Amino acid sequence: MSLNDLSLPPVSPADAASLAVMVTGSVLLPGDAGFDDERAVWNLNHELRPAIIVVPQSAADVQASIRFAAEQHRPVLVKATGHQIVGQAHGAVVIATRQMNDVTIDVVGRTARVGAGAVWSEVVEKAARAGLAPLNGSNLTVGVTGYTLGGGLSPTLGRSFGYAADHVRSLDVVTADGEVRHVDAQCEPDLFWALRGGKGNFGVVTALEFSLFPVARLYGGAIYFPGERTADVLRAWTEWHPGTPESMVTSIAVMRMPPIPEVTEPLRGKFLAAVRIAYSGTTADGERMVAPLRAVAPAVFDTVRDMPYTEVASIHDEPTDPVPYYERGLTLRAFPAQAQDKLIELVGPQADTALVIAELRALGGAWDREPAVPNAVATRGLPYSLLGVAAGPLSQEQHLKRSVAELLDGMKPWQGDRRYVNNVAPEEAGDAIAIYGPERYARLASVKKTYDPANMFRLNHNVIPAA
To answer: Where in the numbering of this chain does the FAD-binding PCMH-type domain appear (predicted)?
Structure first.
């Protein structure tokens, strides 16, 4: 956000009324009924304070909103579910896309076309009726568009097929000039490259089309071990996963579960080390592969089973209602014995930490391969992604942030040179070069100069237009 955004005046009722005439959706000012509902985000510790909110029903509504923002020299923030929001949007136009949530499945073409506000649960459910599956994330309440524009690191099928962004066929986007553009590999290829991985820097995506895959079932779930066995489980998992096929996607999470009703009873209030499993081969092969892990220690709870793809959210079993939290992530270029020891020190039984979860996800496979039509995803070739999450109210902010920082700072000796943008904290938004690397960032900045020279879309992990 520019410092000038803090000094932007309120939108006058007259100006809001002139915009309302142009859109079929809602136009809301502070104090209007529904304004607070539309500015709410997933993280209860984060608050938006925009000048005006538009709830569009069509691409034409988005166009009108963008042109209004341009006339008033206001930044634009796009919100579907609000899982990853940067800044408070002072003086901004917020475009809340949740009503643009159409999902259409092309069974023959194995594709989905979704609106800007669709969430993964809607896509998974409709695709499953045809025996198909998308490259969704771990939490099906997350919006499809923001997840995909950030790359899309699927913990169910990603190691077999790559990033969600790799399989986008086309996007409809309204750019800062108010124009609707249909973008694909042939039409405006530079923008197509940048949108897939460059997050929300280049416009408002109103719809996108992407590939689906013929997967109806998984052998998946989580094996929860006593946290006191963290070292044994971590070392066994680290030795085990490189020998598994690309159809096996796996991670390990050290968890300090709060004693609240929302947590499943066997896990409530427990300190645990969990191995997450998603295998798209046969159940028999999955059981054989997972057997060495099950032998490490007696499980507190074991949910790994044959399941329909519609139940994949149970693998990570994440909250489905908004919560207060802080999270940050980084990539690791390696995970040798010294790094394993350090991680155990930071999150194991002797650690003094407020982290609810520290998850290490094994990458590789198709995540390392450039797609047929290259894109801006920055993290190929990095073997691990590490995420730390601390949960608690705003009153505990410094303590929670310190615990997350201690995890990431402790693992810096093995940190990769690029980062996965969907796991980067809002306060780290000012260093997009560190996310993308200098060469990729320079190309993104060039595309930004073409399509958003005034940096209207700056309330994000911002790519600044090239000079």
So the answer is: 46-215
Whole-angstrom distance, CA of residue 244 vs CA of residue 281: 11
Identity of the residue numbered 392: G
Q: Do residues 203 and 456 make contact, with C-beta atoms less than 8 angstroms apart? A: no
- CA–CA gap between residue 287 and residue 276 (Å, rounded): 14
How far apart (Å, rounded) are the C-alpha atoms in residues 257 and 276? 16
Helix, strand, coil % in the chain, rounded to nearest 5? 35, 25, 40
Whether the Cβ atoms of residue 69 and residue 22 lie closer than 8 Å to each other: no
pLDDT, tens digit (0-9, with 9 covering 90-100), for 120-170: 999 999 999 999 999 999 999 999 999 999 999 999 999 999 999 999 999
* Contact (Cβ atoms closer than 8 angstroms) between residue 426 and residue 461: no
Name the stretches of the chain with pLDDT < 70.
1-4
**Domain termination residue (choose one: 79, 96, 113):** 96
Number of structural domains in the chain: 3
Q: Tell me how crowded residue 217 is: count the other CB atoms within 10 A of its CB.
A: 18
Enclosing H/E stretch for 144? helix 144-149
Spatial separation of the C-alpha atoms in residues 339 and 460, rounded to whole Å: 31
The residues pairing with 127 across neighbouring beta strands, listed in sequence order, are: none
In angstroms, rounded to a whole number, what is the distance separating the alpha carbons of residues 144 and 208?
Answer: 9
- Asked if residue 415 lies in contact with residue 333, where contact means CB atoms within 8 angstroms, the answer is yes
Whether residues 350 and 312 fall in one domain: yes
User: What pTM value is reported for the model?
Assistant: 0.97
CATH number for the domain harbouring residue 386? 3.40.462.20
pLDDT in the model for residue 426: 82
pLDDT at position 3, please? 53
